[in-house]
Amino acid sequence: MAQPTESTDDEIGLILDDPDGRKWIEDHLTELRQDAYGQRILYMVLVSIFVIGLIAYVVGYLLKPGAQVDPLGLLADLLYTLGFALWTAAVVVVLVEIVPEAKRRQIKRALEAYEATRRDATARKGDDDVGRSGGDVR
Predict the structure, then answer these.
(1) Letter string b/e over residues 3-34, b meaning 16 or more CB atoms within 10 A of that residue's CB
(2) Which string of b and e fits 110-122 if b means at least 16 CB within 10 Å?
(3) Closest listed residue to residue 80, CA positions, set 91, 92, 66
(4) C-alpha span between 42 and 40 (Å, rounded)
(5) How do residues 14-39 score in pLDDT, each as one tens digit?
């Protein structure tokens, strides 16, 4: 049975207690926020998987015809299949997850911009109605 891992709060506490650690965090705060709240880590992993998969696929493809001996042939076939699975999985994730998410964000920004212009138009109309009704009494 595996032992539970210790909390990383102790490690974070040590970094925050160290003045150099706090300075490093302050110097890299923008990048850390992008990593924590953005998609950069996902994109890096997908690109890495795609490249590694493509390399394994090509190496397996090149080894396949010349590897008639069982152990080498098996290794070539495994590399070929693993590479194919990795790079196609990365493409599928991009097509199923990344592209629709980007489109959703684009539509969301357009709706927010539309709602903002609508609020501004309503606010201007309200200001014009107050000005015409003589609401400014001195």
Answers:
(1) eeeeeeeeeeeeeeeeeeeeeeeeeeeeeeee
(2) eeeeeeeeeeeee
(3) 66
(4) 5
(5) 888 888 888 988 998 888 888 888 78
Q: Which residue has the higher pLDDT, 3 or 98?
A: 98
Nearest Cα neighbor of 28 from 45, 14, 15 is: 15
Q: Cβ contacts of residue 59 below 8 Å, gap of 6+? A: 79, 83
Inter-CA distances, 83 with 46, 90, 92, 127, Å: 14, 11, 14, 64
Q: What is the pLDDT of residues 76-94, one digit of tens each?
A: 889 999 999 999 999 999 9
What is the value of pTM for the model shown? 0.62
Please state, in angstroms and rounded to a whole number, the distance separating the CA atoms of residues 105 and 112: 10
Closest alpha carbon to 77 in 59, 98, 55: 59
Which backbone phi and psi does 6 adopt, to 5 degrees?
-70, 155
